[in-house]
Amino acid sequence: MKKIIASLFFISFCVCLSFSQAPGLFRIGTGGLQGVYYPIGKLIAQGLTARFLGPDKPAGIPETLFVAQTSGGSISNVQSLLSKETEAGLVQADVAYWAYTRQGPFEGLAEPAPVRAIASLYPEKMQIVVRKDARIETFDQLKGKTISLDEAGSGTLAVLRILLEAHRLSEKDLKPVYLKPEFTVDRLMRNELQGFCLMSGIPALAIERLTSVDYFIVPVDPAVAERIQGQHPYLFPGVIPAGVYQGIGQTPTIEVYALLVVHQDLPDEMAYALTESLWSKQVLSLLETGHAQGASITLDTALDGLSIPLHPGAYRFYAERGMVSKQEP
To answer: Which CATH class is domain 14-123+258-320?
Structure first.
C-alpha cells in the first residue's frame, strides 16, 4: 500500500512539475486557410517556436510556444488582440490605422486601440477573381453579379467597400455572398458564384486551385487607386505581376502593407525578443523557402508602410541598428 501511495505521489509530482515547466503560449491571429496570412503566420510561428524553445532562446525570456490561429482576417485580428484572445496578429496597415484612430469599424471605441507594430511584412494586393464566361472585364461590370466579398471581419471586405464607394456602387448593387476563399473555390468552379475577392499576398492558394475553370482577374483602374490613396493613405496603386497565376498578365490593383501587430501591454523585453527573432537567419530562411511571398519579407522593408507606432521593444531593436532615431518619439 505504501508503495502504491508513494508511486501515486511521484506521478502527481512529475505531472505538477511538467505543468510548471510547460512553455508559455503565444497566439498569432492570421486569416483563412487558403489566403496568405495563414501560411505566412504558420511559418513565423514555427520559426519563433524553434528559437524560443531551442539553444538560441533569447536570454531572460521564458520558453514560449507560438501558434498560428485561423481567423476572419485583419479586423477580427485586431478585435482578438483587444480582448486578449491572441498576443499578436497579421493586420492590414489601413485596418491598424483605423483601430488606432477610432475610424471605420472601430469608431465606437472609447479610446484609441492599444495596438503597436512589430514590423511591416509584405504588400497585400486586391485580387478580384471572376469566371471568364461571366464576361466581367471592369469593376463596374460586377454590378448584378454573384460575388463573394469575403466574410465580416476581413480586411478584404473593408477595402471592397472603399472600392465600391469609389465607383459609386454599394454591396446592394451586387448579389453579394460573404464567404472565406476556401469556401468559394468549389462554388466558383460549379458556377454557383461568378467571382470572389481576396486581399492577400501572392500567390494565393485559393486562386491556384482554380485548375478546372477559365478565370480572369479584374483590374483596378490606377486613377481610381490614386484617388483612393488621397483619402486612405495606406492604400496605394500596385500591380499583380504577369505569371503569378498561369495565363494571367500584369494586372493593376490596389495594395496595402501587412503588419505584424501586438498589444501595447506586451512586455518590452518580449517585444524586443520577438522582433529580434523574427529577423533572425533561422526565421527568414524558413519564410523564404516556405512560401513564395516569404522572400519579400526582409529587414530592409521592415518599416515600410507602418501606420501605427512601433512597440517600444521593437523600436529599441530598430534603433540599435540605426533604422530609427535613438530617441523614441
So the answer is: alpha beta
Q: What is the CA radius of gyration of the chain?
A: 22
Strands 146-148 and 175-177: parallel
pTM of the model: 0.86
Chain segment 204-254, per-residue pLDDT in tens: 888 998 988 999 999 999 999 999 999 999 999 999 999 999 999 999 999
**Residues whose CB is less than 8 angstroms from the CB of residue 21 and which lie 6 or more positions away in sequence, other chains included:** none
Q: How far apart are CA 35 and CA 287, in angstroms?
A: 16
* Domain range list for the chain: 14-123+258-320, 124-257
Q: How many CB atoms lie within 10 A of CB 139?
A: 18
CB 157 within 8 A of CB 151: yes
Domain boundaries 124-257, corresponding CATH code: 3.40.190.10
Residue 181: the pLDDT is 83
